[in-house]
Amino acid sequence: MGRLFLGLVLAGSLLVGTGPQQTAAGQPVVDTAAKAESNRDACGPKTRKPNGRPWRCTFVDHFKVPKLSRFWVQHPEKVPLSPGAACKKRKNVKVWNGQLQLSVNRTGKVFGCQFHVGAVTTYHTFSQKYGRFQARIRVRGTQQRGLQEAFWLWPDDRVKSKDRWPASGEIDIAETYSQHPDLAVPFLHYGSGGVQKGVNTAQDCEAKRGKWHVYTLIWGPEKIEIKVDGKRCLLNTSGDRAFKKKYIVCFTAMNGIGGNRVTSKTPLPSTMRVDWVKVWR
How far is CA 63 from CA 60, 185, 201, 252, in A? Predict the structure, then answer.
């Protein structure tokens, strides 16, 4: 009887041990480390859509290794770059100190390339239709004219289109101009009939030069929303066909043109810095 009782006790303890752990009050023990891990993905802490479902990380670059891993230097013959006698230069693009750095500088030449500029793209390496696109960026702090930077999307040319630009589409999440040192300007290019403030562009998105800012695009079939540091500054509900296809991601630092053209006071060389870029679906 004693041996039988002992065996039953041991068997019971083994059965109890196979179930979930419990506190003294009989409540299940929560594995907080596992729970925290499940709330993160490659892009960091998970965020949710208005419908409550989490965004799924599809692309991220923190620029932690001293070379480009997700981007390549932009070629003007593949993707439009910049007018104003500017030429891209590989040495104007580098990854350093955990940042993507794109520079602009004078060449000293009167003809041909007067400026060397820096630009990268995910051309034929990554593209996506719809989602959440975000980057943390700092541009040169100056009130002198002559600098222009952009975080923008361009249609993937593997998706055939009969439309010509601008009807073919372009999403400028943020363009910064040193002639407007306190602003970032989003612009949506499509068959909209020209500039329509508050519809395809906005000029009241506060983003002081020389400081880090987070620029966000939330893009769906019927709505495009652009935010600066979490504050909405453009909402477009056109549902235009130009925005119903895959786009690639681009960063560009260039010389200004027109009213923002380079002067003798423009601080060159100048550098645009990207801390990280993330994309969700």
Answer: 9, 25, 30, 16
